[in-house]
Amino acid sequence: MRRRTAALVALTCAALAACGSPGSQPAPTPSPERSGPGSATGPSPSGTPVPLPSPSAVPDGGTPDPQDPAAGWSIEQKVGQLLVVGTPADAVTVGDATRTAIEDHHVGNVFLHGRSEAGLEATRGLVESAIGLAPDDAPPMLVATDQEGGSVQVLRGPGFSELPRATEQATWDAERLEEEATAWGAELADAGVNLNLAPVMDLVPADNQSANAPIGYFSRNYGNTAQSVVRSATAFSAGMQASGVEPVIKHFPGLGHVTRNTDTTERVTDDSVTAGSASVEVFADGIDAGARFVMLSNAVYTRIDTENPAAFSPAVVGLLREDLGFDGVVVTDDVSAAAAVTGLAPAERALEAVGAGADLVLASADPTVVPAMADALVARAQDDAEFAAKVDAAVGRVLTAKASLGD
């Protein structure tokens, strides 16, 4: 496995300085998951509410600490930055569960879930309803959706283009795809969306295309070769970034070899992918090309971690961080309703994800689980200093990414 030289140099300097075959089973159901505020208050030691500080503020009004943009925040406020709550994309305003998450649990990120034909103007109104619930001095809200193309396109209607499936996008030259993606990204940005959970970088072997329930069956993959995947996903990502929308490459370390869908099947297992597989290398190339967000798969990769789904696996996150040198934001796939993770209670899913090193926990399909997730993360951080340090590190990465939105 190659290592990114620049990342290793940076680490060294730092040390010195201190993703069922449809033939025999029912066709898989498409899923959009592959899948954030007048001053709000937080608890103080005396029980008196205190204003939620912004990353550029410090409690005493002194000089901000660039090394700790969340200095002075309560643990509840920090945990809120690590959760992404879903809200129906076809609604006029955010749902009650989403409102509760933002107002009562400081959740700083939303995901537009489902399918909408309402168009751009209506979507902008929905986004504004979410942002309006957050404190004025809070960090920018990550507003996410799935706008891949084909069957996985959440936002449609007036103002939104009809995106072709990825297998068609892959037949275009890179220049055309980047140009088209720039226009698609501009539509998202105009609607208030700044995070697109796309492109798919899963490498699907040609002989597994139709049997690959989550990706190949729906033509979500950019062809069947590493070259095609990297070329097309990189062009798509560059176009999104050119319009101020951050892409999220997914689903690390790859869903191309499985035949079951993690959204609808418990314990989907990949017995092929290793740390040195081409399925991993395409993500290394995506990171080298500038990806700032990577989404983890909900499958189990027995040749990397025999027990844990990737979203809960320290070994998988370690592969991403250490071998691939990724220092950006690690996002889980939906862990609110996906069948592959329902063996654990929602609270445990959040704990396992953050404990493994994930930065953002995606609760898109079922926002009602967010309070339990938030409460569990707060309680663990209060009781476990090592876990609290992981929360702090994750918050730092999220806030750094938010500060760079549009760059």
How are the secondary structure elements laid out?
Layout: H1 5-16, E1 41-42, E2 50-51, H2 75-80, E3 83-88, H3 96-105, E4 109-113, H4 120-131, E5 142-145, E6 147-149, E7 152-153, H5 166-169, H6 174-191, E8 195-196, H7 226-242, E9 246-247, E10 249-252, E11 269-270, H8 278-288, E12 293-296, E13 300-301, H9 314-323, E14 329-332, H10 346-356, E15 361-363, H11 370-383, H12 385-403
Helix pairs in contact: 3-11, 4-6, 6-7, 7-8, 10-11, 11-12
What does this structure look like?
The protein is an alpha/beta fold. Helix content is 35%, strand content 12%. The chain has a single domain, classed as TIM Barrel (Alpha-Beta Barrel), CATH 3.20.20. The strands form five sheets. A six-stranded parallel beta sheet has the order 9-8-5-4-3-15. Strands 10-12-14 form a three-stranded parallel beta sheet. Strands 1-2 form a two-stranded antiparallel ribbon. Helix 4 (120-131) crosses helix 6 and helix 10 (346-356) crosses helix 11. The protein starts with a helix and ends with a helix. Mean pLDDT is 87; it is low at 1-64.
CATH architecture assignment: Alpha-Beta Barrel
- From N to C, what is the helix and strand string? HEEHEHEHEEEHHEHEEEHEEHEHEHH
Rounded average pLDDT:
87
Q: Please give the order of strands in the largest beta sheet.
A: 9-8-5-4-3-15
Note the gap between the termini: 30 Å
